[in-house]
C-alpha cells in the first residue's frame, strides 16, 4: 500500500500515484508500459494476474524496474505530514526524509520497555510512564540488594531472597571446586603418564647402553686373545731363529 494522499501538502502529479491502490507510490516499481506501482501492490496483483492492471499488457515480475530518476526525484520532493499528526505532531517534511523523522518522532506510539507491561505510550511520555509503571524494577529499600518489581513488593522477603542467593553461591562454589579438582587430577594424570613414558624411554636407553658395553667387552677380550696368540707366535719364531 502507498502513502495516503490526504497526508500530502499541495498537488500530487497523477503519475506519482500507484495504479492499483491510487495512493502515492511507496517503494515504487515500473512496468515496461511505464505504469508505476507500489512494490507490495504489484507483487500482490501478479500472484493472481499476469498483466498490467491499467492497459492489460502482459508483464512479469522479472520485467519490473525502478522508477525513472526524474520521477523518483519528484516523488522524494513531495511534502507530507507526519503520520503522528493526529497525536499532535505538526512536522511537515519531504517524502525522502519522512521515514527518518517518524522513527524518531516524539509523538510515535512505542511499547513500554518493562517486561510484562503491554502499555503503548508516546515517545515523549515514556520516561514519565516508566517512573510509575507497575512493572518497573527497583532495588529493595531494605538493603538486601535484590531487584524487585513494584507488583511483587508484597511478596518480597529479604531473608528468603538472601538465603536463596547464598544457596546459589554455595552451589556455584562447589561446582567450581569440583571443576578445579578434576582439572588438577587431569593434569597429574597427564604428568604421571609423561613420567612413565619418559622412564620407559630411559630404561630402553640403559638396556641399549648395557648391550653396547657387553659387545665392547667381548671385542676387547677377542683383541687380548689375538694379542696373546700373536706374542706366542713371535716367541716361537724367535726360538726357531736361535736354533737355526
UniProtKB/TrEMBL annotation:
Transmembrane segments: none annotated. GO terms for molecular function: ligase activity; zinc ion binding. Residues 18-56 form the RING-type domain. Pfam families: zf-C3HC4_2, zf-TRAF. A zinc finger (TRAF-type) spans 101-144. PROSITE patterns: ZF_RING_1 (PS00518), ZF_RING_2 (PS50089), ZF_TRAF (PS50145). This is RNF41 ligase. It comes from Brachypodius melanocephalos. The gene is Rnf41.
Amino acid at each position: 500500500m502507498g502513502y495516503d494522499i490526504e497526508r500530502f501538502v499541495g498537488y500530487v502529479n497523477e503519475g506519482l500515484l500507484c495504479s492499483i491502490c491510487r495512493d502515492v507510490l511507496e517503494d515504487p516499481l515500473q512496468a515496461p508500459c511505464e505504469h508505476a506501482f507500489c512494490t507490495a501492490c504489484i507483487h500482490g496483483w501478479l500472484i493472481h494476474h499476469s498483466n498490467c492492471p491499467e492497459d492489460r499488457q502482459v508483464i512479469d515480475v522479472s520485467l519490473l524496474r525502478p522508477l525513472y530518476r526524474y520521477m523518483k526525484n519528484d516523488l522524494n520532493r513531495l511534502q507530507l505530514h507526519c503520520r503522528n499528526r493526529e497525536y499532535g505532531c505538526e512536522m511537515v517534511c519531504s517524502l525522502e526524509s519522512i521515514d527518518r523523522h517518524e522513527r524518531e518522532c516524539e509523538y510515535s506510539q512505542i511499547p513500554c520497555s518493562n517486561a510484562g507491561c503491554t502499555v503503548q505510550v508516546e515517545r515523549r511520555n515514556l520516561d514519565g510512564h516508566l517512573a510509575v509503571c507497575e512493572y518497573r524494577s527497583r532495588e529493595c529499600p531494605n538493603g538486601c540488594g535484590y531487584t524487585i518489581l513494584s507488583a511483587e513488593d508484597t511478596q518480597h522477603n529479604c531473608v528468603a531472597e538472601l538465603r536463596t542467593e547464598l544457596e546459589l553461591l554455595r552451589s556455584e562454589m562447589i561446582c567450581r571446586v569440583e571443576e578445579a579438582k578434576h582439572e588438577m587430577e587431569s593434569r597429574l594424570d597427564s604428568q604421571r603418564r609423561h613420567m612413565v613414558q619418559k622412564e620407559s624411554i630411559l630404561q630402553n636407553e640403559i638396556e641399549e647402553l648395557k648391550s653396547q658395553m657387553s659387545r665392547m667387552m667381548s671385542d676387547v677380550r677377542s683383541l687380548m686373545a689375538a694379542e696373546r696368540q700373536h706374542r706366542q707366535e713371535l716367541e716361537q719364531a724367535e726360538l726357531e731363529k736361535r736354533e737355526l
